[in-house]
């Protein structure tokens, strides 16, 4: 296959994309908690709509994304055939991944937990959305450490975590801290005042012309490198190390020389591996115990929550204090709880009712310092912080009795203004002194939203106040210019100005069949070979 050719994953409904309405977010102050200045957000609603609503403000700002999406094991689609099931799952994931890619910081990374059912398909899909060159690694996490003899074929003991960067050339990550187990290998049998050390061989197999000399131990024994090996330092450097007590000859001074390396000299960070055992990354049973400790009903709606140690490891590698962490499949709220304890800012999205029955109460316990489980003791968590509980606003437009799209009666003037700012790509920032200034797109371009009809005299006054150095977009019900031109004003009518921008009054983009067009029939998922080397949209 030539370098211009490309393998793509193809499925039923792939080319049908939802036209999402960028909803505004409304705060439920009864469920918000703690520090009112907190930037942490817990959003209740469809996660695809929520991601769309976040894009304007948070595009390019999220340092680490962790998601634990539905694994598509078949339980959600028992009455569909296998081909349709895969298609629905892939469409759901593709639409969300594209939005997540836009939210990710240029130096950030996305981590996705997945099992064998869709791992291979997700890898190819991630290659398409994030670019194959931005693939970092696949982690194998030991979620269960005991064999199940009831398994039909193999006892499944692991999940995968796919890791991608936004831009591999700008991607940054941290090493993991050294563990007590790793440091326990360092001893100090000679009571060296410089502290604990570990010894290593001083010879190697590679040829070294200055590495063939003879050395004499304190006991008088002579040593040369073993056959086929050479000292790894010159005689001059060896003598300097020996004089500095950095050569270990054994307790009685009779052994082959070994070099001492002090704990203070080694890297204090460890490069992460790709096999994560349950000892340092937790496992399913541990996660369930964490949930049971938090909720009297044991969080029964959650089958496979993730342990806090797993998220701690990911967040340690992928971010620093103050960075934004995002989880759009919040589940039990573990990502936010761990990010909070690690002094990161976080955003979580969850559609289910457990968003306010389980996640919000869990975070309140974290803030109050009453959550002593998970990583709390490890990070010495004492409490503090806060979060805002937000809900997706209803659709801006709804049909009236005659089938015409009209402004939703649930919208007040403030909500309408904020929504129009989002639709017209303006930052909502109402002025306290200029009634016509509701937001801006640049330092000199502003927006004014009103449900009233503007007459010529009103437009003339507004134009004069705006002046020649600024421009203003006016969104109103109607206007009358009487043939006059106002070069600094742009006039549009609502809702006409936004009617064609998106799908209206659509609240659910979860696992539904609306990804399929009437003309498409279920086929097997396959790979399409793009012989022209062009993007298939």
TrEMBL record:
GO terms for molecular function: DNA binding; N-methyltransferase activity; site-specific DNA-methyltransferase (adenine-specific) activity. This is site-specific DNA-methyltransferase (adenine-specific). Coiled coil: none annotated. It is an enzyme of class 2 (transferase). GO terms for biological process: methylation. It catalyses: a 2'-deoxyadenosine in DNA + S-adenosyl-L-methionine = an N(6)-methyl-2'-deoxyadenosine in DNA + S-adenosyl-L-homocysteine + H(+). Its EC number is 2.1.1.72. Belongs to the N(4)/N(6)-methyltransferase family. Residues 62-357 form the DNA methylase N-4/N-6 domain. It holds the Pfam family N6_N4_Mtase. InterPro entries: DNA_methylase_N4/N6 (IPR002941), DNA_methylase_N6_adenine_CS (IPR002052), N4/N6-MTase_EcoPI_Mod-like (IPR002295), SAM-dependent_MTases_sf (IPR029063). Keywords: Methyltransferase, S-adenosyl-L-methionine, Transferase. PROSITE patterns: N6_MTASE. It comes from the Bacteria.
